[in-house]
Protein backbone atom coordinates (compact mmCIF):
# COMPACT_ATOMS: atom_id res chain seq x y z
CA UNK A 1 0.00 0.00 0.00
CA UNK A 2 3.04 2.27 0.07
CA UNK A 3 2.54 3.47 -3.50
CA UNK A 4 -1.09 4.42 -2.92
CA UNK A 5 -0.19 6.21 0.31
CA UNK A 6 2.26 8.31 -1.71
CA UNK A 7 -0.61 9.41 -3.94
CA UNK A 8 -2.87 10.32 -0.99
CA UNK A 9 -0.22 12.43 0.73
CA UNK A 10 0.67 14.20 -2.51
CA UNK A 11 -2.90 15.18 -3.24
CA UNK A 12 -3.75 16.17 0.30
CA UNK A 13 -0.89 18.66 -0.08
CA UNK A 14 -1.93 19.87 -3.56
CA UNK A 15 -5.68 20.05 -2.97
CA UNK A 16 -5.80 23.62 -1.58
CA UNK A 17 -3.75 24.82 -4.57
CA UNK A 18 -5.77 23.02 -7.26
CA UNK A 19 -9.27 23.46 -5.86
CA UNK A 20 -11.39 26.27 -7.27
CA UNK A 21 -13.77 28.43 -5.28
CA UNK A 22 -16.51 26.16 -3.96
CA UNK A 23 -19.50 26.37 -1.68
CA UNK A 24 -19.06 26.12 2.06
CA UNK A 25 -20.96 22.81 2.06
CA UNK A 26 -18.64 21.33 -0.58
CA UNK A 27 -15.50 22.45 1.27
CA UNK A 28 -16.89 21.05 4.53
CA UNK A 29 -17.48 17.64 2.93
CA UNK A 30 -13.97 17.70 1.42
CA UNK A 31 -12.48 18.43 4.86
CA UNK A 32 -14.51 15.59 6.38
CA UNK A 33 -13.13 13.30 3.68
CA UNK A 34 -9.53 14.32 4.43
CA UNK A 35 -10.03 13.64 8.13
CA UNK A 36 -11.57 10.25 7.37
CA UNK A 37 -8.57 9.38 5.15
CA UNK A 38 -6.24 10.32 7.99
CA UNK A 39 -8.20 7.91 10.21
CA UNK A 40 -8.06 5.28 7.41
CA UNK A 41 -11.88 5.18 7.30
CA UNK A 42 -12.01 5.01 3.52
CA UNK A 43 -15.73 4.20 3.29
CA UNK A 44 -16.62 7.39 5.17
CA UNK A 45 -14.03 9.34 3.19
CA UNK A 46 -15.49 8.15 -0.11
CA UNK A 47 -19.00 9.16 0.95
CA UNK A 48 -17.72 12.61 1.94
CA UNK A 49 -15.81 13.20 -1.31
CA UNK A 50 -18.82 12.05 -3.34
CA UNK A 51 -20.96 14.47 -1.31
CA UNK A 52 -18.49 17.28 -2.10
CA UNK A 53 -18.99 16.60 -5.82
CA UNK A 54 -22.75 16.59 -5.32
CA UNK A 55 -22.42 20.02 -3.67
CA UNK A 56 -20.68 21.35 -6.79
CA UNK A 57 -16.97 20.75 -6.16
CA UNK A 58 -14.96 20.39 -9.38
CA UNK A 59 -11.33 19.90 -10.28
CA UNK A 60 -8.96 16.90 -10.18
CA UNK A 61 -8.27 16.88 -6.42
CA UNK A 62 -11.67 15.63 -5.31
CA UNK A 63 -11.82 13.02 -8.08
CA UNK A 64 -8.33 11.80 -7.28
CA UNK A 65 -9.28 11.23 -3.65
CA UNK A 66 -12.48 9.46 -4.76
CA UNK A 67 -10.28 7.18 -6.89
CA UNK A 68 -7.90 6.43 -4.01
CA UNK A 69 -10.69 5.68 -1.53
CA UNK A 70 -12.58 3.49 -4.00
CA UNK A 71 -9.30 1.64 -4.68
CA UNK A 72 -8.79 0.98 -0.96
CA UNK A 73 -12.33 -0.43 -0.82
CA UNK A 74 -11.81 -2.67 -3.85
CA UNK A 75 -14.37 -0.76 -5.93
CA UNK A 76 -12.34 -1.02 -9.11
CA UNK A 77 -14.83 0.43 -11.61
CA UNK A 78 -15.49 3.53 -9.49
CA UNK A 79 -11.79 4.03 -8.88
CA UNK A 80 -10.96 3.76 -12.59
CA UNK A 81 -13.72 6.21 -13.54
CA UNK A 82 -12.39 8.75 -11.05
CA UNK A 83 -8.78 8.46 -12.22
CA UNK A 84 -9.87 8.78 -15.85
CA UNK A 85 -11.57 12.03 -14.89
CA UNK A 86 -8.35 13.25 -13.26
CA UNK A 87 -6.39 12.34 -16.41
CA UNK A 88 -8.33 15.01 -18.31
CA UNK A 89 -6.19 17.60 -16.48
CA UNK A 90 -2.91 17.48 -18.44
CA UNK A 91 -0.56 18.20 -15.52
CA UNK A 92 -2.15 15.37 -13.50
CA UNK A 93 -2.38 12.80 -16.32
CA UNK A 94 0.81 10.89 -15.46
CA UNK A 95 -0.17 10.45 -11.80
CA UNK A 96 -3.69 9.39 -12.81
CA UNK A 97 -2.27 6.87 -15.30
CA UNK A 98 -0.01 5.40 -12.61
CA UNK A 99 -2.99 4.85 -10.35
CA UNK A 100 -5.02 3.38 -13.21
CA UNK A 101 -2.20 0.85 -13.38
CA UNK A 102 -2.73 0.03 -9.69
CA UNK A 103 -6.46 -0.41 -10.33
CA UNK A 104 -5.76 -2.76 -13.23
CA UNK A 105 -3.44 -4.79 -10.99
CA UNK A 106 -6.21 -5.00 -8.42
CA UNK A 107 -8.48 -6.46 -11.10
CA UNK A 108 -5.79 -8.92 -12.20
CA UNK A 109 -5.30 -7.22 -15.60
CA UNK A 110 -1.52 -7.34 -15.76
CA UNK A 111 -1.05 -6.34 -19.41
CA UNK A 112 -3.39 -3.36 -19.02
CA UNK A 113 -1.55 -2.37 -15.84
CA UNK A 114 1.76 -2.48 -17.70
CA UNK A 115 0.38 -0.12 -20.37
CA UNK A 116 -0.69 2.42 -17.72
CA UNK A 117 2.65 2.24 -15.86
CA UNK A 118 4.52 2.67 -19.16
CA UNK A 119 2.41 5.76 -19.91
CA UNK A 120 3.14 7.25 -16.48
CA UNK A 121 6.86 6.53 -16.81
CA UNK A 122 6.95 8.20 -20.23
CA UNK A 123 4.86 11.26 -19.32
CA UNK A 124 6.08 12.31 -15.88
CA UNK A 125 8.87 14.70 -14.94
CA UNK A 126 8.64 13.70 -11.27
CA UNK A 127 11.52 11.37 -10.39
CA UNK A 128 9.62 9.72 -7.52
CA UNK A 129 6.69 8.84 -9.78
CA UNK A 130 9.02 7.62 -12.53
CA UNK A 131 10.80 5.38 -10.02
CA UNK A 132 7.50 3.93 -8.81
CA UNK A 133 6.37 3.23 -12.39
CA UNK A 134 9.75 1.67 -13.25
CA UNK A 135 9.55 -0.61 -10.20
CA UNK A 136 6.05 -1.75 -11.18
CA UNK A 137 7.07 -2.37 -14.79
CA UNK A 138 10.04 -4.49 -13.71
CA UNK A 139 7.57 -6.92 -12.12
CA UNK A 140 5.23 -7.09 -15.13
CA UNK A 141 5.34 -8.33 -18.73
CA UNK A 142 6.19 -5.62 -21.25
CA UNK A 143 2.97 -4.18 -22.69
CA UNK A 144 2.31 -4.65 -26.39
CA UNK A 145 2.53 -1.36 -28.27
CA UNK A 146 -1.04 -0.10 -28.65
CA UNK A 147 -0.96 1.89 -31.84
CA UNK A 148 -4.38 0.94 -33.21
CA UNK A 149 -7.75 2.11 -31.95
CA UNK A 150 -11.10 0.77 -33.14
CA UNK A 151 -14.82 1.26 -32.62
CA UNK A 152 -17.66 -1.10 -33.47
CA UNK A 153 -21.42 -1.12 -32.99
CA UNK A 154 -24.40 -3.29 -33.81
CA UNK A 155 -27.98 -2.04 -33.36
CA UNK A 156 -31.53 -2.94 -34.33
CA UNK A 157 -34.40 -0.50 -34.48
CA UNK A 158 -37.62 0.85 -35.95
CA UNK A 159 -38.08 3.86 -38.28
CA UNK A 160 -41.62 5.17 -38.76
CA UNK A 161 -40.75 7.14 -41.94
CA UNK A 162 -37.71 5.76 -43.72
CA UNK A 163 -35.76 8.61 -45.32
CA UNK A 164 -32.62 8.34 -47.38
CA UNK A 165 -30.02 10.77 -46.07
CA UNK A 166 -26.58 10.99 -47.70
CA UNK A 167 -24.28 13.56 -46.16
CA UNK A 168 -27.30 15.64 -45.18
CA UNK A 169 -28.92 15.50 -48.66
CA UNK A 170 -32.48 14.13 -48.47
CA UNK A 171 -32.90 12.26 -51.74
CA UNK A 172 -36.10 10.42 -50.89
CA UNK A 173 -38.76 10.01 -48.21
CA UNK A 174 -40.69 6.75 -48.18
CA UNK A 175 -43.66 7.59 -45.96
CA UNK A 176 -43.39 3.95 -44.83
CA UNK A 177 -42.21 2.47 -41.54
CA UNK A 178 -39.78 -0.43 -41.33
CA UNK A 179 -37.42 -2.28 -39.00
CA UNK A 180 -33.68 -2.13 -39.59
CA UNK A 181 -30.27 -3.42 -38.51
CA UNK A 182 -27.21 -1.15 -38.53
CA UNK A 183 -23.54 -2.11 -38.19
CA UNK A 184 -20.54 0.23 -37.91
CA UNK A 185 -16.84 -0.46 -37.69
CA UNK A 186 -14.03 2.12 -37.66
CA UNK A 187 -10.29 1.82 -37.03
CA UNK A 188 -7.20 4.02 -37.05
CA UNK A 189 -3.54 3.13 -36.82
CA UNK A 190 0.02 4.17 -37.68
CA UNK A 191 1.69 4.08 -41.07
CA UNK A 192 5.08 5.86 -41.22
CA UNK A 193 6.22 8.66 -38.91
CA UNK A 194 3.39 11.17 -38.39
CA UNK A 195 1.19 9.43 -40.98
CA UNK A 196 -1.85 7.46 -39.82
CA UNK A 197 -4.42 5.34 -41.61
CA UNK A 198 -8.14 5.40 -40.82
CA UNK A 199 -11.09 3.59 -42.32
CA UNK A 200 -14.73 2.79 -41.64
CA UNK A 201 -17.61 0.59 -42.77
CA UNK A 202 -21.28 1.48 -42.23
CA UNK A 203 -24.02 -0.98 -43.24
CA UNK A 204 -27.77 -0.28 -42.95
CA UNK A 205 -30.28 -3.00 -43.85
CA UNK A 206 -34.09 -2.55 -43.81
CA UNK A 207 -36.39 -5.50 -43.39
CA UNK A 208 -38.70 -4.66 -46.33
CA UNK A 209 -37.53 -1.42 -48.00
CA UNK A 210 -34.48 -2.87 -49.73
CA UNK A 211 -34.20 0.17 -52.00
CA UNK A 212 -33.08 2.14 -48.92
CA UNK A 213 -30.36 -0.36 -47.86
CA UNK A 214 -26.98 1.39 -47.67
CA UNK A 215 -23.31 0.47 -47.50
CA UNK A 216 -20.58 3.09 -47.09
CA UNK A 217 -16.83 2.38 -47.19
CA UNK A 218 -14.29 5.09 -46.30
CA UNK A 219 -10.51 5.00 -46.04
CA UNK A 220 -7.67 7.48 -46.01
CA UNK A 221 -4.37 8.71 -44.63
CA UNK A 222 -3.76 11.54 -42.15
CA UNK A 223 -0.64 13.58 -41.54
CA UNK A 224 -0.34 15.14 -38.06
CA UNK A 225 1.95 18.04 -37.20
CA UNK A 226 2.26 20.42 -34.23
CA UNK A 227 1.47 24.08 -34.88
CA UNK A 228 2.47 25.80 -31.64
CA UNK A 229 -0.52 25.53 -29.33
CA UNK A 230 -2.49 23.86 -32.10
CA UNK A 231 -2.30 20.31 -33.46
CA UNK A 232 -2.85 20.24 -37.21
CA UNK A 233 -3.98 17.40 -39.45
CA UNK A 234 -4.21 17.01 -43.22
CA UNK A 235 -5.98 13.98 -44.68
CA UNK A 236 -6.78 12.45 -48.05
CA UNK A 237 -9.86 10.22 -48.02
CA UNK A 238 -11.84 8.06 -50.45
CA UNK A 239 -15.38 6.78 -49.98
CA UNK A 240 -17.73 4.51 -51.91
CA UNK A 241 -21.46 4.10 -51.22
CA UNK A 242 -24.16 1.76 -52.50
CA UNK A 243 -27.96 1.70 -52.48
CA UNK A 244 -29.73 -1.65 -52.63
CA UNK A 245 -26.36 -3.24 -53.50
CA UNK A 246 -25.92 -0.94 -56.53
CA UNK A 247 -23.34 1.84 -56.86
CA UNK A 248 -24.58 5.19 -55.57
CA UNK A 249 -21.64 7.59 -55.32
CA UNK A 250 -17.90 7.84 -54.75
CA UNK A 251 -16.02 10.74 -53.15
CA UNK A 252 -12.46 12.02 -53.10
CA UNK A 253 -11.88 14.27 -50.10
CA UNK A 254 -9.27 16.63 -48.71
CA UNK A 255 -9.57 17.32 -44.97
CA UNK A 256 -7.74 20.03 -43.03
CA UNK A 257 -8.28 20.52 -39.30
CA UNK A 258 -6.63 22.02 -36.24
CA UNK A 259 -7.35 21.50 -32.53
CA UNK A 260 -6.15 23.15 -29.34
CA UNK A 261 -6.94 23.24 -25.63
CA UNK A 262 -8.25 26.64 -24.56
CA UNK A 263 -8.22 25.70 -20.86
CA UNK A 264 -8.47 22.62 -18.68
CA UNK A 265 -12.14 22.36 -19.60
CA UNK A 266 -12.45 23.74 -23.15
CA UNK A 267 -11.15 22.28 -26.40
CA UNK A 268 -11.59 23.87 -29.84
CA UNK A 269 -11.49 22.27 -33.29
CA UNK A 270 -11.71 23.98 -36.71
CA UNK A 271 -12.24 21.85 -39.84
CA UNK A 272 -12.46 22.27 -43.62
CA UNK A 273 -13.28 19.49 -46.09
CA UNK A 274 -13.44 19.58 -49.89
CA UNK A 275 -15.15 16.73 -51.76
CA UNK A 276 -15.20 15.74 -55.42
CA UNK A 277 -18.30 13.60 -55.96
CA UNK A 278 -19.09 11.10 -58.71
CA UNK A 279 -22.68 9.90 -58.99
CA UNK A 280 -22.94 6.23 -60.04
CA UNK A 281 -25.50 4.02 -61.78
CA UNK A 282 -28.26 6.51 -62.54
CA UNK A 283 -27.17 9.14 -59.99
CA UNK A 284 -25.01 11.13 -62.41
CA UNK A 285 -26.79 14.30 -61.27
CA UNK A 286 -24.71 14.06 -58.08
CA UNK A 287 -21.48 14.69 -60.01
CA UNK A 288 -19.94 17.82 -58.57
CA UNK A 289 -18.17 19.28 -55.57
CA UNK A 290 -18.83 20.23 -51.96
CA UNK A 291 -17.17 22.50 -49.39
CA UNK A 292 -17.70 22.05 -45.62
CA UNK A 293 -16.40 24.47 -43.00
CA UNK A 294 -17.03 23.86 -39.31
CA UNK A 295 -16.01 24.74 -35.77
CA UNK A 296 -16.56 22.65 -32.63
CA UNK A 297 -16.12 23.51 -28.97
CA UNK A 298 -16.02 20.76 -26.31
CA UNK A 299 -16.42 21.49 -22.59
CA UNK A 300 -15.77 18.86 -19.90
CA UNK A 301 -16.20 19.17 -16.16
CA UNK A 302 -16.68 16.36 -13.68
CA UNK A 303 -19.36 14.10 -15.17
CA UNK A 304 -20.55 16.58 -17.82
CA UNK A 305 -19.52 16.80 -21.47
CA UNK A 306 -20.97 19.45 -23.80
CA UNK A 307 -20.32 19.75 -27.55
CA UNK A 308 -21.27 22.90 -29.48
CA UNK A 309 -20.96 22.88 -33.28
CA UNK A 310 -21.50 25.10 -36.29
CA UNK A 311 -21.09 23.95 -39.89
CA UNK A 312 -21.49 25.63 -43.26
CA UNK A 313 -21.89 23.51 -46.42
CA UNK A 314 -22.10 24.58 -50.03
CA UNK A 315 -22.44 22.20 -52.97
CA UNK A 316 -22.39 22.45 -56.74
CA UNK A 317 -23.92 19.39 -58.45
CA UNK A 318 -24.56 18.76 -62.14
CA UNK A 319 -28.24 18.57 -61.22
CA UNK A 320 -28.81 22.13 -60.04
CA UNK A 321 -31.96 20.99 -58.20
CA UNK A 322 -29.69 19.30 -55.64
CA UNK A 323 -27.19 22.15 -55.18
CA UNK A 324 -27.58 24.05 -51.89
CA UNK A 325 -26.09 26.27 -49.21
CA UNK A 326 -26.63 24.99 -45.65
CA UNK A 327 -26.05 26.29 -42.13
CA UNK A 328 -26.18 23.88 -39.18
CA UNK A 329 -26.18 24.57 -35.44
CA UNK A 330 -25.96 21.64 -33.01
CA UNK A 331 -25.44 20.93 -29.32
CA UNK A 332 -24.92 17.62 -27.50
CA UNK A 333 -24.87 17.10 -23.73
CA UNK A 334 -23.74 13.98 -21.88
CA UNK A 335 -24.02 13.34 -18.16
CA UNK A 336 -22.40 10.35 -16.45
CA UNK A 337 -24.80 9.36 -13.67
CA UNK A 338 -22.32 6.98 -12.07
CA UNK A 339 -19.54 4.63 -13.17
CA UNK A 340 -22.00 2.61 -15.29
CA UNK A 341 -24.92 4.76 -16.46
CA UNK A 342 -24.92 7.84 -18.71
CA UNK A 343 -27.58 9.92 -20.47
CA UNK A 344 -27.21 12.00 -23.62
CA UNK A 345 -29.33 14.62 -25.39
CA UNK A 346 -28.77 16.45 -28.65
CA UNK A 347 -30.41 19.24 -30.65
CA UNK A 348 -29.62 20.32 -34.19
CA UNK A 349 -31.11 22.81 -36.64
CA UNK A 350 -30.33 22.99 -40.37
CA UNK A 351 -31.33 25.74 -42.79
CA UNK A 352 -30.81 24.88 -46.46
CA UNK A 353 -31.33 27.15 -49.45
CA UNK A 354 -31.36 25.53 -52.90
CA UNK A 355 -29.71 26.98 -55.99
CA UNK A 356 -32.88 26.56 -58.06
CA UNK A 357 -35.30 29.23 -56.83
CA UNK A 358 -38.32 27.00 -57.42
CA UNK A 359 -36.99 24.54 -54.82
CA UNK A 360 -36.98 27.24 -52.14
CA UNK A 361 -35.49 26.28 -48.78
CA UNK A 362 -35.75 23.73 -45.98
CA UNK A 363 -35.49 23.86 -42.20
CA UNK A 364 -34.75 20.62 -40.39
CA UNK A 365 -34.97 20.19 -36.61
CA UNK A 366 -33.73 17.03 -34.88
CA UNK A 367 -33.83 15.88 -31.26
CA UNK A 368 -31.91 12.85 -30.01
CA UNK A 369 -31.98 11.13 -26.61
CA UNK A 370 -29.90 8.17 -25.41
CA UNK A 371 -29.29 6.08 -22.30
CA UNK A 372 -26.21 3.89 -22.04
CA UNK A 373 -24.75 1.43 -19.56
CA UNK A 374 -21.09 0.41 -19.49
CA UNK A 375 -20.71 -3.37 -19.33
CA UNK A 376 -16.91 -3.19 -18.88
CA UNK A 377 -14.00 -1.08 -20.11
CA UNK A 378 -14.71 -2.13 -23.71
CA UNK A 379 -18.45 -2.68 -24.14
CA UNK A 380 -21.56 -0.64 -23.45
CA UNK A 381 -25.28 -1.06 -24.22
CA UNK A 382 -27.16 1.90 -25.72
CA UNK A 383 -30.81 2.76 -26.37
CA UNK A 384 -31.47 5.77 -28.64
CA UNK A 385 -34.47 7.78 -29.78
CA UNK A 386 -34.46 10.44 -32.51
CA UNK A 387 -37.16 12.77 -33.77
CA UNK A 388 -36.83 14.85 -36.94
CA UNK A 389 -39.10 17.46 -38.46
CA UNK A 390 -38.39 18.79 -41.97
CA UNK A 391 -40.24 21.87 -43.21
CA UNK A 392 -39.75 22.57 -46.92
CA UNK A 393 -41.13 25.00 -49.48
CA UNK A 394 -41.86 21.95 -51.64
CA UNK A 395 -44.68 20.06 -49.86
CA UNK A 396 -43.39 16.63 -50.90
CA UNK A 397 -40.36 17.17 -48.67
CA UNK A 398 -42.34 18.03 -45.53
CA UNK A 399 -42.09 15.13 -43.14
CA UNK A 400 -41.76 14.02 -39.55
CA UNK A 401 -39.74 11.03 -38.43
CA UNK A 402 -39.35 8.93 -35.27
CA UNK A 403 -36.56 6.41 -34.91
CA UNK A 404 -35.69 4.14 -31.99
CA UNK A 405 -32.81 1.67 -31.71
CA UNK A 406 -31.03 -0.50 -29.19
CA UNK A 407 -27.61 -2.07 -29.48
CA UNK A 408 -24.09 -2.56 -28.19
CA UNK A 409 -20.89 -0.60 -28.83
CA UNK A 410 -17.24 -1.42 -28.23
CA UNK A 411 -14.05 0.63 -28.16
CA UNK A 412 -10.69 -1.12 -28.36
Main sheet overview: 14 strands, antiparallel, barrel
> What is the number of helices?
8
Radius of gyration: 25 Å
Find the CATH topology of the largest domain. Porin
**CATH level-four homologous superfamily name of the largest domain:** Outer membrane protein transport protein (OMPP1/FadL/TodX)
Tell me the fraction of residues in β-strands, as a range: over 45%
Mean pLDDT: 87
Order of helices and strands: HHHHHHHHEEEEEEEEEEEEEEEE
Task: Assign the structural class, choosing from mainly alpha, mainly beta, alpha/beta, alpha+beta, or little secondary structure.
Answer: alpha+beta
Helix proportion of residues, in percent?
A: 25-40%
Quote the distance from N terminus to C terminus. Answer: 30 Å
Q: Count of DSSP E strands?
A: 16
Our count of domains comes out at 2
Amino acid sequence: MLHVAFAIVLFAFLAPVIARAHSAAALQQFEIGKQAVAAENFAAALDAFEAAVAEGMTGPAVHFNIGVCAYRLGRWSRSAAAFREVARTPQMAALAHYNLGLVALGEGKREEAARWFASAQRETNDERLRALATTQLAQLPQPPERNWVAFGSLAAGYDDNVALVSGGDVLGVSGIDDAFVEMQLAAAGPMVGPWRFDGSVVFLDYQDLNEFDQLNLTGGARYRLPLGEWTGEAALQLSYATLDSEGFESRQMLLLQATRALSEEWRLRARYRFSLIDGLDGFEGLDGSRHELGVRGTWRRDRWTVDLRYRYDTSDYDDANLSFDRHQLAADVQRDLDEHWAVEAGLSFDHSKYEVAANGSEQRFELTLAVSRSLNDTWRAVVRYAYADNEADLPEFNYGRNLVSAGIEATW
